[in-house]
Structure formats: structure tokens, C-alpha cells
Amino acid sequence: MSGTAAPGPGIELVGGPTPGALPEPPRGTSERPLPIVMDCDPGHDDAVAILLALSRPDLRVLGISTVGGNAVLERTTETALRVLALAGRPDVEVAAGAAHPLEGPLHTAPHVHGESGIEGPALPEPVSAAIGEFAPAAMARWIAAADAPVVLVPTGPLTNVALLLEEHPSVRDRIAHICLMGGSITEGNITPAAEFNIWVDPEAAEIVFDAGIPVTMIGLDVTHRSIVWEPEREALSRAGDRVGPVVGGLLAFFQEFHERTYGWAGTPIHDAVTVAHLVEPGLVRTAALDVRIETQGRYTRGRTVVDLRRVTGRPPNAHVGLDIDRERFVTLLTEAIRSYR
Ligand code: RIB
Ligand code: CA
Asked: DSSP string spanning 280-299?
């Protein structure tokens, strides 16, 4: 793959998907927006995911929880506040969560996102502050107060979500779906076997995938087919006079890692695909499959082991992303960024 050559066609299934085996995510409308909680580690692509979600009349962001991941918790939390200032939405609550995974130390990704976790264009100063409540408790409060079952949208390590499920079991039945960015059927990105979000906290991921709540796994197999190529990034930069230039600058920095690593003259926006999937039916092709999380492997810790051929006979616990309509994704994202005035 070089220049503008992304991976080939999406992963094909033998025997076709298992129809109706697992509930799909609920959908919202402008009249009844879908309530979501975003748990993230901004992060260039988390920032774009937040901007996309806040632009949608069919979504209602109940709150944003932050976790250590791309950068340390203090940085990811500050960046979330800066993104809300950029979006003109300081009203959205931000709750800081886990500074490290359930087991072991935090490993960040400065080689991808820079030391700050958001290298590139200057973001506005925060105009709000994080609430003092620990994120899992705030997430439980947001979910309990929602007027409809909530979709969790994790786009970082799953530590906060695991703590929410373990420490606040009373809200589990108010969580309709968990639509997360993480994992991969094929190759990893932080190790040959593992994708970063799962690799940072495999124990948390195992709790989430085994919680009995339907999961949609937007993994690298999909996001690496959602690349925004350079001309499209330049068009994004011109979309709207305030937010577009910042998004274009964020993607330009994020592209540097992908040019070095994959040879792409463009960049995926991993986390934004989770939000796009919630608002654009048919954008992402998925299949209901069983996903195990490797927590022990010497070379494979953090791997999502996807039973693509259904050889284990285990019932599916996740809708696993196989492919994406890339052009529709880029159009949807560009229109969202243009909508900011
Ligand atoms: O592997 C990509 C994921 O790890 C994205 O969510 C990115 O923001 C980082 O968190
Ligand atoms: Ca992220």
C-alpha cells in the first residue's frame, strides 16, 4: 500500500452473517435523538469523533468521560475540554476517569499523537472544567438520568467502561449497546497482534466484551479502509471558517504517522467511524461474531480473537466491522464539519 492505495476489498464471510443473532445499535432521530456517552482518550481522531457527534441532531451527547491512553489522563481531559470550546459546547460535562489500566502501568502513544496527545494546530483554551466526579460514577449518573436506553461510544482503552459495569451494575440494563473503536480481525497497530485501545487494557476489554451487552467492534479492518486522502483533507480544511481549518491541521499531523508506517498520503480517523456508524445505516458492513480477548499471550496480549469462520460454535457477542463505504464516510464528515459556524 502506498500513496493512495488502501487495503483491498473488505473481509468476506463464508456462509454469510448470522441474521438477528445480536441486536444492532438503536437509531436516533431529530425528534428523539439517540442518547450517547463518549468515553475517549483525545487524541486526534477522538477529537474529530466528538465534533462529529456534537454536530448531529439525531444524537445527544449526555457527557464525555476521559481515560489515559493516547496521552496521560490530565492531557486527554484538557484536550476534551478544548474540543468542546472549539465546538462551542462548554455545556457538555467532562468527567476524568482512570489514569491507568486495571493492571499495570499506562503506555501512551506519543509516536502517533505527540507528547501532548494532540500535536498540531492550536486548540482553543478551555472555557469549562472537568467535574470532580470520577468518570464511572458520572457515566452511571448520565445513563440513569437518560430518557431512553443509552449507547456507550468508547474510543480509547476500556478501563472506565469496565469500572462502570463492575461498580455500577444497576445501570447495565439501561445500556442498549456499546459501539467501540478497537481491535482488529487481522493485523495490530501497536504490536503485530494487537490494536492500541485493547492492548492498553486487555482485562478491561475482556470485561466489556463478556458483559452480555451487544457490542459493535469498529476495528482496524474497517478504519484502515476509511482513509481521508490528502485532497479530501484539504477540502475538510476549507469546510466552515472555524472548525474546518483545525480539523484539517489535526488530520495533517495524524497523517504523518500513517505515511511513515503505511505509506499512505492520507489518514484514517478511527474513532469518528464509530459515530458515523451510529448515524448512517449501511455505512459499515458488519457480521455478528464471537470475539475473545487475549490477556495472556507473550506476543499476542491485547489481541481480539475474532471467530470469523464460526469454528468455535460460540454465540456472537459483537457485530464486527468488515468494510466501510469510504466515500460516504468522507462526505458525512465533511458536511458535519461544515455545519459549524
Ligand atoms: O488504534 C487506534 C485507536 O487508538 C484510536 O482510538 C486512537 O485514538 C487510539 O486511542
Ligand atoms: Ca482514541
From this structure: STTSEEEEEE-EEE-SS-TT
Q: How far does residue 124's CA lie from ligand 1's centre (Å)?
A: 22
pLDDT at site 1 = 40
Spatial CB neighbours of 64, under 8 Å, sequence gap ≥ 6: 37, 38, 39, 40, 50, 80, 84, 92, 93, 94, 95
In testing the pocket of ligand 1, which one of 50, 70, 158, 227 has its CB within 8 Å of the most ligand atoms? 70
Query: What 3-state class would DSSP assign to 87?
Result: helix
Q: How many CB atoms lie within 10 A of CB 241?
A: 10
One-letter amino acid at 127 equals V
Rounded Cα–Cα distance for residues 36 and 167 (Å): 20
The answer to whether 258 and 269 are in contact (CB under 8 A) is no
Q: Residue 27 — very low, low, confident or very high, per pLDDT cuts 50/70/90?
A: very high
- H or E element, residue 72: none
Ligand nearest to the CA of 268: 1
Instruction: Tell me the pLDDT of the chain averaged across its residues.
Output: 95
How confident is the model over 117-131, as a mean pLDDT? Answer: 96
- Catalytic annotation, residues: 270
Cell matching residue 324: 466501510
**Distance (Å, whole) CA 233 – CA 238:** 9
- Identify the CATH class of 34-338: alpha beta
Ligand 1 site residues, Cβ closer than 6 angstroms: 41, 43, 45-46, 69-70, 155-156, 181, 189, 195-197, 270-271
pLDDT at 35 > cutoff 90: yes
Please write the tens of the pLDDT for every residue from 146-176. Answer: 999 999 999 999 999 999 999 999 999 999 9
**pLDDT, tens digit, 9 for 90 and up, residues 233-277:** 999 999 988 899 999 999 999 999 999 999 999 999 999 999 999
CA–CA separation, 259 vs 5, rounded Å? 12
C-alpha count within 13 angstroms, C-beta hemisphere, residue 338: 12
pLDDT tier at 9 (50, 70, 90 boundaries)?
Answer: confident
Query: Cell triple for residue 288?
Result: 455478528
- The domain ranges of the chain are 34-338
